[in-house]
Amino acid sequence: MSADLGEIVLGKSNDELPRSGASTPLYPHNTDFSVPDALLSGTIMTKVSEKKQKQVIFHLDPDEGRILYKSRKTGMIPIETIKEIRAGTNAHYYREQFKFPEEAEARWITVIYILEGAYKTLHMLAPTRDVFLMWDQALHKLFAIRQGLMTGLGNLDMRQAVWERQYWKGADKEGDQRLVFDEVETMCKRLNVNLSRDELRRIFTLADPNKQGYLDFPAFQHFVKVLKRRPEIERLYDNLRASNTGQFDFTIFEKFMYETQKSKLSQTDLQAIFDKYSSRYSPLPPASVVSAQTPLQASSPSTTLSTTAAAVSGTAAIASSTQTLSVEGFISFLLSPDNAPFSEKQDVIWQDMSLPISEYYISSSHNTYLVGHQLVGVSTIEGYIRALLHSCRSVELDIYDGDSEPVIFHGKTLTSKVPLRDICQAIAKYAFMTSPYALLISAEVHCGIEQQDKMVEIMTSIFGEALISAPVEGRPKIEVLPSPEDLKGKFLLKAKNLYVVAQLEALRLQKAVANKPTLEADPSSSSSSSDSEKDADGKRGGVRGGMDQLKEKWRKARGKDPARPSKPKVRMSFKLASLLVYTVGVKCHGIDSSIEYAPEHIFSLSENTANKLVKASMTDLVKHNQNHMVRIYPKGTRVNSTNYAPHRYWAAGAQVVAINWQTFDLGYMINQAMFQRNGRSGYILKPPALREGAKDLLSKHTKHFLDVSIISAQQLPRLKDSSGQEIVEKSVVDPFVQVSLHIPDWTHSPFLPESATTAGAKYSAPTDATLTAATSARTVSFNTCVVKNNGFNPVWQEELCLPFDCIGDMKELIFVEFAIRQEGKDDNDDAPIAIYCTPLSCLESGFRHLPLHDSQLTQHLFSTLFVKVSIRDVD
């Protein structure tokens, strides 16, 4: 992606603007790609929806990054809200859904995007193949550019070019390629710049030295560079170089990197970084010079700010031979991937993938087929595609008998049905696009033998040899589970094997009958009444009653109950059993030594059951999960598809902790933050404390402080209306920052010293879910003060101190969340203005710019939070 971006703009100037002709360069002087003028002026295409099809004129605005069309509702789709573009054969599902002929497929484009927290689709049918190709190529290129800017803080030149063109185009309402003062003032309102009209007029005059009364594009570039000054970094820069006779040389840089940034790079690597930024950037004009109202000189579009600085101050840059770093170079370094806040390379799979699969956390989804409400939501292939493209490695199928083939839906609800075949085709297509590692298909099978066989036939024909299978008879005993590396590109079916379930139940009953003293502890026995009492069915209670019930179950299991005909049971297809190899679903009969589970046995626990196990026998659960897999899923009463806090169960070693991916809440955010790691492979190696031979680590309990300086934010997003449009008028941003630590409840008493609470830290105990609210783990949070009416460059310079405890040094299971909120908005009911969340172990120390995201975790193109971070140990 980054290489693609570089080909488009790096080293190019940005002075040329859209012009007439056959096509317009996406970014100036770029010969690789141009936007056809037909798309700028608009083309007529068929807009397809469930209700109707109509002819609509669609425009593409590459500068502001939007698809535009006339609509009573929205009529505008920002490119950065697009999650996927499916065109041609990739849109086969929709073409069939709307019953269009096969020839329409070659002209079909479906755009999937997010609006107000909900997934939306736009279906367009081009009139000709040529029009389709124009739209397909332009959309994919624009989408690639925006996506490249939404994966961290890289591509600085492209980011600046996109910013300049987007806001130039938005401000130039007359389209005359010049901005008068009123247009500039309107743009600044859109940016939420907190400057008086007189101050704006002063900067405007500086950028217009020839007194033309307007800004052309080069003058506009100079204007925004002054507008986007970073005085808080300039002060840091001055403080650092003050100890070295005013020169910021490599000695100062090296000291800063090792002492403040806690860099682990070699001196050679640091020298290379220093050379990169000292050679590329020269000094900015001092703030005092700009405030002195010395006219800014016009420059060629490719001129750096250093020439502007020289023109303004009348002084030359420091001689390059001295190898010094300018303040602009320092700012660029602090904003660059060379100073990323995330300690791991997110695009690299770096962990050891050769250990048994039970030693990894696996990115997992629950009710993957749903895209909304649990009771009346829509079942669709969309949930699978979204999850798989975001590196989910465990999807769920609820399979029922259909008219001729099995179907997927949420049983005993009003949710719609989707053919199993359609879903398997979607899974096969998207399974390994993001991650090459095994996909676990967790199936609840509710259909009869005939359609179980049909289910196997469908999966075998679609997944082919990638589907793991083994004969039921004569299967060799599995001593240890295979690794993710062993299972690359494979599909694993997980479902209950009724034969194995019956064998384990019979074994459990046999042991229970032979071991009478344990009967009272058996959950299947009734001990709520005396021996002489009977329950509502007339059966004896107490120990004797429990004994009778166990014997009765044992006789039934062995087929020896002539007195009462056994209730017919659903049989299981041997073909289906052959697909259950390394993930054989069984019922949980506890996790003590009374039942021995094979390595391939996996059971599913609802969150309520999991909570009980965690409270009653956390150590036993951790030990079980060292060699066996466990799946946790949200309880059924979560009708709004809310989520629990997944790290509560990761802390117990559970591997497959399933999340409702259709709900953008705290649980979803933590899950996504966890699996951004390890190259987004969907597999994360569990911390050493939760793997075999780590008993000593689990007994290690430490206490710490997270010290955070909230310094400033840059260009916070404006509030938007229901159609996704920015609210400019009567929209005031009064931001504050809330920093929260989400900590597993792994100790009975949290570390919360009085000094922290006195300073303003707030503690929230773990909470259980309601019908509409998610659960939370232990949380410690701290709020800054409010900066009034400034969303462009608010400065806090506030120090926060958050206490936390840790078991076994498992800081990767503690999540730190930075949420920028609007004063007066309820934390629980209102989405934050912007957020950033990461495992605490991945947050780098020192001065960092955090890329900010919306509540759906889509990164804002231009918004950052500037902080200083350190972790302090308590003796």
UniProtKB/TrEMBL annotation:
Its EC number is 3.1.4.11. It catalyses: a 1,2-diacyl-sn-glycero-3-phospho-(1D-myo-inositol-4,5-bisphosphate) + H2O = 1D-myo-inositol 1,4,5-trisphosphate + a 1,2-diacyl-sn-glycerol + H(+). The keyword Metal-binding does not apply. InterPro entries: C2_dom (IPR000008), C2_domain_sf (IPR035892), EF-hand-dom_pair (IPR011992), EF_hand_dom (IPR002048), PH-like_dom_sf (IPR011993), PI-PLC_fam (IPR001192), PLC-like_Pdiesterase_TIM-brl (IPR017946), Plc1_PH (IPR037755). Residues 576-691 form the PI-PLC Y-box domain. This is Phosphoinositide phospholipase C. It comes from Collybia nuda. Residues 686-854 form the C2 domain. It comes from the Eukaryota. PROSITE patterns: C2 (PS50004), EF_HAND_2 (PS50222), PIPLC_X_DOMAIN (PS50007), PIPLC_Y_DOMAIN (PS50008). Keywords: Hydrolase, Lipid degradation, Lipid metabolism, Transducer. Residues 531-540 have a biased composition (Basic and acidic residues). Residues 517-569 are annotated as: Disordered.
